[in-house]
């Protein structure tokens, strides 16, 4: 049983680079999305999500702590039905293979241009796979 | 034909093994060949290499000739003074016994009983770092071994030590190279991440500037830094740690500038031959394309419709790059060969970067729109 968020615009940023996360937050908020928080680790992400389940999470794959971004995304998806967009500097074939079971909306390679990020988020939030 | 003298046989065995060692890299195959050569050279039916295992305190028969299946790779031998290999290892000297039954120094092993071994010679295989093991020949007949024969066996053991030493050096060199590649990839990853931090910072700053011209200038810098970061990203995913495909890079760059192709908008027409480049070449070219394509997007299509053409050609050590559009073109002042738009920073950068790659930048006339052509020689890496 998942505790799925039904607020399409609620987004969680999982990113350990503070300035990158801050800029992403501003981009999303300026575009009208609600960012529920910035989590630098997987553990922090799950803690934030338990308070306010996100509809979408933008997840960096290489993050510090006991869980990497893929494991974190798996938990967010299992617990809250959260949609996932991976944003990573490392998108080699083995990494992409690991993301596949989570059916992410997109896997974006850093550096991501603001326009591309917003376009991806717009597509994801409107995605029929999670709108049901 | 006269049979070769023992000395000549020994020299032939050493020469043949030396040649074999130059082309064979597998250690087990090399040790097996060494056993074959010493057995042949000394006219004995059995030879083996015993590898000393410090953790177990014994020898393992690592290679051999003449033995039944199941001996090589499985049978162990004690590493003490009561047995010839142990004594050879401990004294670091060859050990000879022409009549084992009458030799009070040694206790026979099960394997020796099975093969009724009557005489033997052992030569230690000595490395700089310690003892690898022992090269041993045995025979079921009692027989003396002459000093030249013992010397031959010890020389062969020394040759094996040299081969092992070379092989271990190669392995440690390979490990060091692999480690270097990991470190370099990690460094590239960090550079790319830091460039991403810089673009984020520029974006944060731009968001706080009310003046649109000033904000636009910061965003242009952001695009330039992005172009550099993209090259590092491609390099990180490239099989080759120092090269990536120029066409793939420029396509990714143009796609981020233009956005997805859509009907009625600006589209990208690509014609890129494979051309591997380093960061030293790729980054300046990426910045050049960033400026020229941005320029086209800004000035060429007032209706928001058109095509940007990107062509990469590789011919031997030369690469040519063509960027063109089918937009409204540029007015040319009399006598001028180049673009007549105000000399923006972007075009100054293009000229400086073209110079950096020692390229020739021209702006050939076009029926429609503008054309830029850059040709340069790829430096030897």
Index terms:
heterodimer; A: 132 residues; alpha/beta; Rossmann fold; B: 381 residues; alpha+beta; Beta-Lactamase; Heat Shock Protein 90; 2 domains; 6-stranded antiparallel sheet
Discrete helix count of chain A: 6
CATH fold name of the largest domain in chain B:
Beta-Lactamase
Structural class of chain A: alpha/beta
Distance between the termini of chain B: 57 Å
Largest sheet of chain A: 5 strands, parallel
Structure overview:
By secondary structure, chain A is of the alpha/beta class. Helices cover 44% and strands 20% of the residues of chain A. In chain A, strand 3, helix 3 and strand 4 form a beta-alpha-beta unit. Chain A is globular. The C terminus of chain A is likely disordered. Chain B has 381 residues and is α+β, with helices and mostly antiparallel strands. Chain B has two domains: 168 residues, GAF domain (Beta-Lactamase, 2-Layer Sandwich); 135 residues, Histidine kinase-like ATPase, C-terminal domain (Heat Shock Protein 90, 2-Layer Sandwich). Chain B is 47% helix and 21% strand. Chain B is built from nine helices and 13 strands. In chain B, a hairpin with a 2-residue loop joins strand 10 and strand 11. Chain B is rod-shaped. The chains are: A alpha/beta (132), B alpha+beta (381). At the A-B interface, helix 1 and helix 5 of A face helix 5 and helix 6 of B.
């Amino acid at each position: 049983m998942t505790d799925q968020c039904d607020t399409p615009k609620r987004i969680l940023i999982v990113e350990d680079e503070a300035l990158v996360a801050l800029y992403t937050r501003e981009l999303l908020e300026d575009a009208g999305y609600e960012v529920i928080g910035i989590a630098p680790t997987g553990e922090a992400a799950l803690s934030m999500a338990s308070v306010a389940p996100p509809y979408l999470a933008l997840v960096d794959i290489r993050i510090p702590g006991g869980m990497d971004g893929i494991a974190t995304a798996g938990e967010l998806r299992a617990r809250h039905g959260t949609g996932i967009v991976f944003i990573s500097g490392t998108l080699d074939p083995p990494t992409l293979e690991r993301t596949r079971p989570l059916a992410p909306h997109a896997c974006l390679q850093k550096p991501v241009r603001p326009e591309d990020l917003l376009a991806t988020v717009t597509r994801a939030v409107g995605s029929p796979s999670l709108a049901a | 034909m006269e049979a070769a003298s023992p000395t000549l046989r020994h020299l032939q065995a050493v020469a043949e093994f030396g040649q074999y060692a130059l082309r064979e890299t597998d250690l087990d195959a090399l040790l097996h060949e060494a056993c074959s050569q010493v057995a042949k050279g000394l006219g004995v039916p059995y030879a083996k290499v015993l590898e000393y295992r410090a953790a177990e305190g014994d020898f393992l028969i690592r290679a051999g000739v003449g033995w039944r299946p199941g001996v090589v790779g499985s049978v162990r031998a004690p590493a003490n003074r009561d047995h010839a290999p142990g004594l050879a290892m401990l004294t670091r000297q060859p050990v000879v016994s022409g009549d084992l039954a009458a030799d009070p120094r040694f206790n026979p092993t099960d394997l020796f009983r099975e093969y009724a071994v009557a005489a033997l010679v052992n030569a230690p295989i000595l490395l700089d770092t310690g003892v690898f093991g022992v090269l041993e020949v045995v025979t079921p007949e009692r027989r003396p071994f002459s000093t030249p024969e013992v010397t031959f066996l010890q020389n062969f053991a020394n040759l094996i030590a040299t081969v092992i030493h070379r092989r271990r050096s190669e392995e440690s060199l390979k490990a060091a190279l692999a480690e270097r590649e990991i470190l370099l990839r990690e460094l590239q990853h960090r550079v790319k991440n830091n460039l991403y931090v810089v673009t984020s910072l520029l974006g944060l700053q731009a968001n706080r500037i009310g003046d649109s011209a000033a904000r636009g200038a910061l965003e242009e810098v952001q695009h330039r830094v992005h172009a550099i970061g993209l090259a590092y990203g491609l390099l990180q995913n490239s099989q080759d740690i120092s090269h990536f495909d120029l066409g793939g890079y420029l396509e990714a760059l143009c796609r981020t500038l233009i956005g997805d192709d859509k009907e009625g908008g600006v589209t990208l027409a690509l014609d890129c031959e494979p051309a591997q480049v380093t960061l030293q070449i790729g980054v300046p070219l990426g910045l050049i394309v960033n400026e020229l394509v941005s320029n086209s997007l800004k000035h060429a299509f007032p209706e928001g419709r058109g095509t940007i053409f990107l062509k990469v050609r590789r011919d031997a050590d030369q690469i040519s790059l063509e960027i063109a559009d089918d937009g409204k073109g540029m007015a040319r002042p009399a006598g001028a060969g180049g673009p007549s738009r105000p000399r923006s920073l972007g075009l100054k950068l293009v000229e400086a970067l073209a110079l950096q790659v020692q390229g020739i930048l021209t702006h050939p006339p076009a029926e429609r729109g503008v054309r830029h052509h850059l040709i340069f020689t790829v430096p030897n890496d």
